[in-house]
Write a structure and sequence with these properties.
single chain; about 230 residues; alpha/beta; 6 helices; about 25% helix; globular
Length: about 230
């Protein structure tokens, strides 16, 4: 299998010509993670001769891959969007517990498997997440900006990259009434820091709690797919 994690949270897997030419539309379990695994969603109309955009979908604390797909799965067929969702190795992602480790290795394996089975457009690869998954998406994508072109972070708490590579574009949303990760101590501090560091950030606040409203998901996906 192509891929394999290097030090400092770096991902090795990259989009290449897929080995498999017959990956059918629908939901595919990765089937190499034991009790904590992952899912690949291939949209209706996928064609191996037309590389498709890909979003890596990262769930919140206590969640799983199926829940991680939720923001974009209803929109994926119309968008022609590949979705890869993985389960964190423990209750939440490794960087939340102090540093990159086994989750990076598993994500790298899952990405390598996806690239071997589907044609992926290297110019449209996003890391997406909600809550802890949003913090992880930001941290992972900034560390691996040569792979990820975009980051979509719904209600993030923080960012903790192991390094800086490239300049992925960033979309962040946060609910004004969020009581899980309060907006004042999270996105309202995080967004200015990212902008000062030179990142192109589109930031949207909405009147609501700790959630991803459908209209925010639609807007974020349109932003990712725009030319």
């Amino acid at each position: 299998m192509r891929g394999g994690v290097t030090i400092q949270g770096r991902l090795v897997a990259r989009p290449l010509a897929p080995i498999s030419k017959r990956t059918a539309p629908g939901l595919h379990p990765l089937a190499f993670g034991g009790d904590r695994d992952g899912l690949l969603y291939v949209p209706a109309g996928y064609r191996p001769d037309q590389p498709a955009p890909l979003a890596l979908m990262l769930h919140g604390a206590g969640g799983d891959a199926r829940g991680g797909l939720a923001p974009f799965q209803p929109l994926a067929d119309n968008a022609g969007l590949l979705l890869l969702a993985t389960d964190s190795r423990q209750q939440s992602w490794d960087v939340i517990r102090g540093g990159f480790g086994p989750d990076v290795a598993f994500i790298d394996q899952a990405l390598a498997w996806t690239f071997a089975h589907c044609a992926v457009d290297p110019g449209r690869v996003a890391a997406e997440g909600f809550s802890d998954g949003a913090s992880y998406a930001l941290s992972l994508a900034i560390t691996n900006g040569e792979l990820f072109t975009h980051v979509i972070a719904f209600s993030p708490g923080f960012v903790a990259p192991a390094g800086y590579e490239g300049h992925p574009r960033i979309y962040i949303s946060h609910g004004i009434g969020d009581r899980v990760l309060p907006i004042d101590s999270c996105s309202r501090k995080l967004v200015p820091r990212l902008k000062r560091s030179g990142y192109d950030v589109l930031y949207k606040e909405f009147d609501g709690p700790h959630t991803v409203p459908p209209e925010i998901a639609r807007e974020a996906l349109a932003w990712f797919l725009e030319k």
